[in-house]
């Protein structure tokens, strides 16, 4: 079936029967359980709306996807990848969480964490650029989130400041897993091969490997060269983001995509005057053409640029620095 419901979340409803026993019924959430509000964003296949759970009054962002449009444009696999990926990424404060999925005749609905602070890109544009303290904080939260999704066997493949959302307390929530790659689970397959033949996840990957390129400015050289993304490709994008937060613009930018790709492949970028030396050292160790030679997550955490950062839970409990 086209729109299967694997991993769909349900809520438990407790009822007391005539004999006084408590019974738990699993109730699937549906459109009628929410009050829909303002539009938060619009994509080519979806609209994100603010919504409130009528029972709990908890606020969510609901991504509404048009089934007919998705089928017509052959994007069914991508929608399934987004759902499967989000279902693997539970319990990290830096990732937009998927709470429920449901559908009606016309649409699919993904009930997500609401990130009311909007996109990091919007905040950055308003400020022009960030100082070292803010870049350290947002860089650390993005890195902690990327480390988590890598630990869960997922490569994002389209990290950029538009996909880094901010919650009401201005902490990071990474979104948009429609182009993510789910790696074979090493616990299920000691040889490192993928699961069963015809596995929907692997099937999607085969097609995508030749067709998908993320956003031009953040695309890694290995994706352009070999059409192959790995965990280190997310760290290339991370290097581009750290550069952009401090400089106010991404390192590789040209009049069109082709010229941008040429600059990336030639590692053609420069640092603006006044770019902090410690940050420059970090960026230079991330923007490395050979993915195997890029600084791995553990070494990034220990780089001098992130000196003083409380990695782990402390980072997320900390008050976000005032933007300057
Ligand atoms: N725009 C897209 N996804 C969103 C979310 N989860 N929260 C707020 N705005 C969004």
Quick tags:
12 strands, 324 residues, 19% strand, binds adenine, alpha+beta, 5-stranded antiparallel beta sheet
Question: Summarize this, please?
Answer:
The chain is α+β, with helices and mostly antiparallel strands. It is built from 11 helices and 12 strands.
Question: Layout of SSEs?
Answer:
Layout: E1 11-16, E2 22-27, E3 34-42, E4 46-53, E5 59-66, H1 67-72, H2 76-88, E6 98-103, E7 107-113, E8 118-119, H3 120-127, H4 132-151, E9 154-155, E10 164-166, E11 172-174, E12 181-182, H5 200-211, H6 221-226, H7 231-247, H8 257-265, H9 277-286, H10 297-301, H11 313-317
Antiparallel strand pairs: 1-2, 3-4, 4-5, 5-7, 6-7, 8-10, 9-12, 10-11
Helix pairs in contact: 4-7, 7-9
Describe it for me?
There is one protein chain. The chain has 324 residues and is an alpha+beta fold. Helix content is 34%, strand content 19%. The chain has eleven helices and twelve strands. A five-stranded antiparallel sheet has the order 3-4-5-7-6. The chain has a three-stranded antiparallel sheet with strand order 8-10-11. Strands 1-2 form a two-stranded antiparallel ribbon. α4 (132-151) runs antiparallel to α7 (231-247). The longest helix is centred in the middle third of the chain and has 20 residues, at 132-151. It is globular. Mean pLDDT is 90; it is low at 189-210. Bound molecules: adenine. Residues 40-41, 48, 61, 96, 112-115, 165, 175 line the site of adenine (ADE). Adenine (ADE) binds at residues 40-41, 48, 61, 96, 112-115, 165, 175.
């Amino acid at each position: 079936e086209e729109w299967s419901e694997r991993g769909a979340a349900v809520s438990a409803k407790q009822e007391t029967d005539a004999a006084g026993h408590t019974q738990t019924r699993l109730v699937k959430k549906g459109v009628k359980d929410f009050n829909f509000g303002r539009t938060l964003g619009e994509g080519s296949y979806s609209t994100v709306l603010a919504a409130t759970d009528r029972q709990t009054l908890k606020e969510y962002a609901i991504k509404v996807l048009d089934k007919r449009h998705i089928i017509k444009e052959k994007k069914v696999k991508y929608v399934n990848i987004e759902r499967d990926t989000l279902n693997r990424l539970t319990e990290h404060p830096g990732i937009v969480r998927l709470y429920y999925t449901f559908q009606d005749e016309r649409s699919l609905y993904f009930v997500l964490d609401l990130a009311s602070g909007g996109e990091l890109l919007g905040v950055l544009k308003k400020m022009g650029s960030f100082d070292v303290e803010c870049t350290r904080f947002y860089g650390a939260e993005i890195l902690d989130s990327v480390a988590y999704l890598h630990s869960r066997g997922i490569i994002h493949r389209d990290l950029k400041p538009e996909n880094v959302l901010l919650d009401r307390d201005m902490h990071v929530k990474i979104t948009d897993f429609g182009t993510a790659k789910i790696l074979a689970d090493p616990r299920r397959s000691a040889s490192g091969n993928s699961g069963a033949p015809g596995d929907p996840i692997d099937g999607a990957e085969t097609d995508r490997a030749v067709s998908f390129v993320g956003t031009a400015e953040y695309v890694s050289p290995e994706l352009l060269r070999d059409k192959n993304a790995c965990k280190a490709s997310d760290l290339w994008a991370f290097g581009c983001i750290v550069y952009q937060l401090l400089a106010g613009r991404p390192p590789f930018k040209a009049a069109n995509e082709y010229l941008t790709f040429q600059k990336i492949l030639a590692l053609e970028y420069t640092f603006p005057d006044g770019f902090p030396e410690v940050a420059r050292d970090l960026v230079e160790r991330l923007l490395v053409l050979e993915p195997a030679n890029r600084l791995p997550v553990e070494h990034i955490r220990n780089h001098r640029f992130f000196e003083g950062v409380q990695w782990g839970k402390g980072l997320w409990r900390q008050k976000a620095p005032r933007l300057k």
